[in-house]
Amino acid sequence: MLVAALLPMLAKAQSNTFTITGKIGHLSTPARVYLDYTDLLNEGGKEDSADVINGTFKFTGNLEGVATCRMALAHNGDGKMKAVYTGDAIYFQFGKNEHVVISSKDSLSNAKFTGSKIHAEEDAYNKVIGGTVMAITKMANFDFSQGTEAQRADSNFLKQVDQQFRKRLSDRTEKQLQFAKEHPNSVFGLIALSEAVNFKRDMSEIAPVYNALNVKYRDSKKGKELDQRIKSVQLTAKGAEAPVFSMKDVNGQSVSLKDLRGKTVLLEFWASWCSPCRAENPNLKEQYKLYKEKGFEILGVSLDSDKKKWEDAIAKDGIPWIHVSDLKGWSNEAGILYGVSGVPAGFLIGPDGKIIGKDLRGESLNAKLAELFKN
């Protein structure tokens, strides 16, 4: 009777098992592959790694729905972070009960995929919308490389390349919105809308498309996150009262945004692994020094999940303002509340608690602070 009772559970576990098998040339130790994935539709995800032996590696796991995945290959065994940010990394989707095979002569970046219906759908989706952001970035780099040496030193040429890059992104966003309208029963309709909202902030256009999505996608983890982001954009519009929250600092003491009422506050979302965030820190330190005694405060919310890395970054950069985190990474509760989908992200809040600026940094932030504290 016990065996009979367990059979349905065993069958379910087996049906949700996936494998990813790779064959990349003839690489071997110390080469290592790193896999990070999250389930788009349900709770769950994992970080994993595997040695490459005679060009082969394999991952096995359980998945309830559809996973979005980052895979990075450290050819020389020089660690995950280097592989992710300066090496050989790819992003793709796969589904439960799929047996994905990745093969290439030399790298992940030009690998071919077989065995995944979801990945085939992803390819078709990307063709419709004009490619991934990474592919569009590569186009811009190619456009730049095609210029002469004189052109590459010419600001007008750089501006043309940048304008073409931004036009491609804008066109892609419009195609994603159209795709979501036309494919409410596809998981890529949900994905398209989730990406489009990063660039198109008019929620009066986004919200109806979201409401037309299949209910199973609206009720999924990613669907609920998207719903929260739509609401967050409306909540954090310029002139709106900044949503309040409480979070613990590095010493475990609770800090509330509400307690900073009466000061001009820069609510800065960042992470130890975010190079652009940390590149801005010297400027923030200078502005903090200039205006702290005049009522300026910075509340840094880290999207880290590793406390030591968070603390080490604060110490190394010597950033003296208030720092909080719940160490939940991209699931940071304040980040979700404010609809943060990328870092750095900033909200400038007036003494009355209302939002007076968004994503100001560098000279634009400096000019705004100078205006606010000119007396």
Task: Please write out the topology.
Blueprint: H1 2-15, E1 17-24, E2 32-39, E3 45-51, E4 56-62, E5 66-74, H2 80-86, E6 88-95, E7 99-104, E8 112-114, H3 117-129, H4 133-145, H5 149-152, H6 155-182, H7 187-199, H8 203-211, H9 215-218, H10 221-235, E9 246-248, E10 254-256, E11 264-270, H11 275-291, E12 296-302, H12 307-317, E13 322-324, H13 333-337, E14 345-349, E15 355-358, H14 363-372
Parallel strand pairs: 1-7, 11-12, 12-13
Antiparallel strand pairs: 1-4, 2-3, 2-5, 5-6, 7-8, 9-10, 11-14, 14-15
Helix pairs in contact: 4-6, 6-7, 7-8, 7-10, 8-10
Structure notes:
This protein has 375 residues and is α+β, with helices and mostly antiparallel strands. It has three domains: 16-114, Sandwich (Immunoglobulin-like); 133-235, no CATH class; 246-372, Glutaredoxin. It has helices spanning 2-15, 80-86, 117-129, 133-145, 149-152, 155-182, 187-199, 203-211, 215-218, 221-235, 275-291, 307-317, 333-337, 363-372; strands spanning 17-24, 32-39, 45-51, 56-62, 66-74, 88-95, 99-104, 112-114, 246-248, 254-256, 264-270, 296-302, 322-324, 345-349, 355-358. The strands form four sheets. The chain has a five-stranded mixed sheet with strand order 13-12-11-14-15, covered by helices on one side. The longest helix is centred in the middle third of the chain and has 28 residues, at 155-182. The protein starts with a helix and ends with a helix. 29% of the residues are buried. Residues 6-14 have low confidence and may be disordered.
